[in-house]
Amino acid sequence: VGGVGGGARRPPGRCTAAGRRATSAPRAPGDLAAQALFSEPLLFFFFNPRGQLAKAQAGAVREFEAGGMADTAAVPVRASKRARRQASKLRFAEEEVASRDEERELMQALKISRRMAESVASGADKNFDALVAAPVFHLTEEEFALGPAAYAASIRDKAEQYGICRIVPPASWKPPTERPPETRKLETKFQEINAMSEGHFFGEGKLYTASEYEAMAKAFEKTWDESHARSSGGRLAADGSGLCEPLGDAERARAFERWFWDVVDTEAETLNVEYANDLNTASAFPKSGEYSTHPWNLNNIPHHETSLLRFMGEQVPGIDAPWVYLGMRFSTFCWHTEDNWMYSINYNHTGAPKLWYGVPGSAAPLLERAMKEAIPSLFEADPALLHKLVTLMPPTRLKSFGVPVVTTRQRAGEFIITFPRSYHAGFNEGFNMCEAVNFAPVDWLPWGGESRTEYQKISRPSFLRFEDMLFHYAAFLKNTSPNGIDSHVGDLMGAQLRNVLREETLGREAACRDGTVRSRRVRGAHLGADSVCVKCKTPLCMSAIVASESLKIGAGGHKVRMTCVQHGAALKVPPAERTMLYTHDLGELGKATAGFLGEIKRDGPEKGRTLDNLKAGVSHSFRVGWRARSAAWVARARAALERGAGNVRELCEAAEEFEWGGADMQTVRNLVAQLNARKAGHIHPGALPVPMARPRP
Asked: Whole-angstrom Cα distance, residue 641 to residue 674?
């Protein structure tokens, strides 16, 4: 794989001064500045020297006011007078529309650039001391014994508003570190730090053993210290250890920070590093002994009794199984949130500190808007850019856009907890080995439900089968709470169960209304591990739309293309030729939801209102015409059973329009069971569908 940005890859660990990028053919100064403003805002904001910022802005304004961007193309000479008049009118109309669009884009660019100019002039864009420090908690033995999920819940009111926090364990916490075996070569990602604001994917780096990577990383540190000692305000120590004599630990860290973001922001130098991140290797925590079962051992966190990840049904590395990270100086992780906006916990096993920046989940839309305003061309080309972990913007610049950014420095032996939907980014100050995993306590549920909706809007793939996990956990709580379900947990769960039931009801009803009248029940807990909507990439749990013909093809071993019930049109076949698949009818889902809500510990009146609210929330979805057709079908089916005549197959196919429905369609399902029994040669009145499978604890 070539280097980031498409050029020839430079060797990692090389850090040399470099000139700015070459520009295109010469243009008039005003035209160049205006073009930079509304066509290439990225170049304007990030790669213009500071001294040229105000000059370019002023030139763009003068050029715009002078009409320098007007089109001067002439109408062909040979055209008739009428043709010239018509062409002239059309051209001027098009120019007027284009001019308005250009003016709007230019004014937006000027607004942002003025803000950037003010930030540069005031020095705010480099004032890292103005960033708020994330909260730090020094735990006692008693607090540490609670475990990460319980302790995070106890400090949530204090810490969530910052997005991230740092946890310092008690002095007794000294787990041994198990490095990756030397027999294994570790993959690395090639990072071109000076191009990190351009949104390019990382290239593939070299393969290293853990000791080879450490040697490379420390050699890079020595070279960098020698070449940057003077410019960083320090001098070489007599023992050759680099910047240490004139700078204390905090000052040294601040020097790294300023230099790093200067490279990202201005491309003052070319900087290439390699990051051994997301390593699906064995955890560095002990596998035996007293620390193997400790609640802060990252292997145990996703499977703790308070974690919903126990009910995922499959293991996902990095989510419910830790990932290991080997870092070197300036290796970085870009702005991102965790998958499905989960909590995460990161532990620095050994080595140099990791510098973190965080934005609270409540301010996530602010960060997203700021990034899109500052570099619109990148987001127009790829609206999901922020979800790909390849874009950096200085935290001080985000702060100038009104985004609340905090920072903290994680040393060896310390934890970082990130809260739901918290954006975070940062870099390593030197060689270190860290480890991270996600966790999802019950207070994450509102965030998980919202992330499911947002992911669907932007067609972002997700590993999480949210509905499946939700109903599995509901069944587990109901079966293991003989004295009733805690009201706090019950309210959080109940809200999500009702949302899922409402969405399933509306989605299935809409598909039926649009003409998808065929349906088929799928026996099993879900539709299959690889079932994903081809349109919005949502994992399909309880229902799906397929082309009816593909069901015959799929029986031969071919993968069947599916959509969610909202996006059946993406299959490119008429509605009458589609089939709805479902694992449970709405009657079963409603019964399971109502049964869960009925087990919540409440006073009598509140309990009744909860169930009434559920009924009112979904009953509006069923249309009068659909119910009338089902009543007509019931009359035909009963007549056929009484007379012992009628086309059973035709009746059963017609019933597919109704079988997936709620409790009011139970008569239809019972009659279908009787018709099928008669067809098989024996009558079994009132046969019921297979109930929902109970989840494994």
From this structure: 8
Kindly state the helix (H) or strand (E) to which residue 282 belongs, with its residue range.
none
CA atoms within 13 A on the CB side of 146: 14
- What is the C-alpha to C-alpha distance for residues 165 and 154, in angstroms, rounded to an integer? 13
d(CA 364, CA 336): 10
Q: How many residues does the chain have?
A: 697
Q: What is the pLDDT of residue 265?
A: 86
Alpha helices in 438-585 (DSSP H): 445-457, 466-479, 487-513, 548-554
**3-state class of 279 per DSSP?**
strand
List the structure tokens of 310. Answer: 């126990």
Q: Which helix (H) or strand (E) holds 579?
A: strand 578-582
| Total Cβ atoms within 10 A of residue 350 | 13
DSSP H or E stretch at residue 204: strand 203-204
pTM: predicted TM-score of the whole model, two decimal places: 0.77
Segment 340-365, tens digit of pLDDT:
999 999 999 999 999 999 999 999 99
Neighbours of 239 (CB within 10 A): 8
Angle at 179 between CA 175 and CA 184, to 5 degrees: 160
Q: Tell me the two tokens of residue 601.
A: 């510990």
Look at 6-15, 360-369, 433-442, 544-553 and tell me which has the smallest mean pLDDT: 6-15
Query: Residue written as tokens 């954006």?
Result: 423
Residue 230: pLDDT band with limits 50, 70, 90: low
Beta bridge partners of 605: none
Cα(113)–Cα(95) distance, integer angstroms: 26
Residue 296, φ and ψ in degrees, nearest 5: -95, 0
What lies within 8 Å, CB to CB, of 7 at 6+ separation is none
Torsion of CA 666, 670, 671, 675, to 10 degrees: 150
89's enclosing H/E stretch is helix 81-122
User: CB under 8 Å to 423, separation ≥6 — which residues?
Assistant: 163, 335, 336, 337, 358, 359, 364, 367
Residue 92 DSSP code: H
User: Which three-class secondary structure state does DSSP give residue 616?
Assistant: helix
What sections of 229-330 are H helices per DSSP?
Answer: 249-266
- Considering only residues 147 and 383, tell me which one the structure prediction assigns the higher pLDDT: 147
Residue 165 — left, alpha, or beta (φ > 0 → left; ψ -120 to 50 → alpha)?
beta
Other C-beta atoms closer than 10 Å to the C-beta of 360 total 23
Distance from chain centroid for Cα 697: 27
Cβ density class 491-517: b for 16+ within 10 Å, e for less: bbbbebbbbbbbbbbebbbebbeeebb
Residue 193: Cβ within 10 Å count: 23
Q: Which residues pair with 336 in a beta bridge?
A: 424
d(CA 364, CA 380): 19
pLDDT in tens, 499-509: 999 999 999 99
Three-state DSSP class for residue 434: strand
**Percentage helix, strand, coil, to 5, in the chain?**
45, 15, 40
Distance, in Å, from the CA atom of 688 to the CA atom of 673, rounded to the nearest integer, reads 7
Q: Could you tell me if 349 and 434 are in contact, meaning their C-beta atoms sit under 8 angstroms apart?
A: yes
Euclidean distance between CA atoms 12 and 445, whole angstroms: 42
